[in-house]
């Protein structure tokens, strides 16, 4: 079982929390979007993976209610659906999936929320009393996702060097994620074009 999450926002949390290793209360074992349907999970992880990690971390942050985490989760999902690379093609499907995922965690996420709070009580230091919803890095990251703009955080004196570095890492991760999405989209259309050409060739052969 992979117990150590790989998304940068969770790595940032390690500045404040002990490494959970395989602690039984690490919420959802950082498994991305917890959807028990293979294809749907793959799509959700590709589009909403970072937002699911933020939601996991929100559950484990002291002082958050489940409702607050779930509402923030839904807002973050919807902000991704406005991103040009996805929204221009699949906006309606994206929003439907976002609402479905929000409804699921809101209805059956109580135990995950309890587990996350138990984790924070057992492992987190006093410094990590700020809600993840109030974290400056997370707020800037959400703004980056929503606005689809480069954030020159190093010029912002309100952030510490550590926060600037964490955000730059997250921005790079987001760029790589979207680059991978664009590559997969090109491969999909290339395969579809080749298939269509083969069908046309076969059809012309039959007409002869």
From TrEMBL:
GO terms for biological process: arachidonate secretion; phospholipid metabolic process. GO terms for molecular function: phospholipase A2 activity. This is Uncharacterized protein. It comes from Kipferlia bialata.
């Amino acid at each position: 079982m992979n117990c150590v999450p790989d998304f940068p926002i969770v790595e940032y949390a390690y500045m404040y929390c002990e490494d959970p290793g395989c602690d039984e209360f690490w919420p959802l074992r950082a498994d991305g979007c917890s959807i028990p349907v293979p294809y749907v999970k793959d799509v959700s992880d590709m589009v909403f993976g970072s937002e699911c990690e933020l939601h996991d971390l929100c559950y484990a942050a002291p002082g958050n209610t489940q409702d607050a985490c779930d509402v923030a989760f839904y807002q973050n999902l919807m902000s991704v659906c406005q991103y040009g690379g996805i929204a221009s093609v699949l906006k309606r499907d994206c929003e439907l999936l976002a609402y479905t995922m929000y409804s699921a965690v809101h209805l059956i996420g109580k135990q995950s929320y309890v587990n996350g709070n138990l984790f924070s009580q057992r492992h987190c230091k006093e410094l990590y009393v700020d809600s993840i919803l109030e974290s400056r890095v997370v707020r800037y990251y959400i703004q980056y996702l929503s606005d689809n703009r480069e954030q020159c955080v190093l010029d912002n004196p309100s952030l510490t060097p550590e926060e600037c570095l964490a955000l730059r890492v997250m921005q790079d991760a987001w760029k790589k994620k979207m680059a991978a999405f664009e590559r997969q989209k090109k491969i999909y259309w290339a395969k579809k074009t080749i298939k269509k050409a083969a069908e046309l060739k076969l059809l012309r052969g039959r007409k002869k």
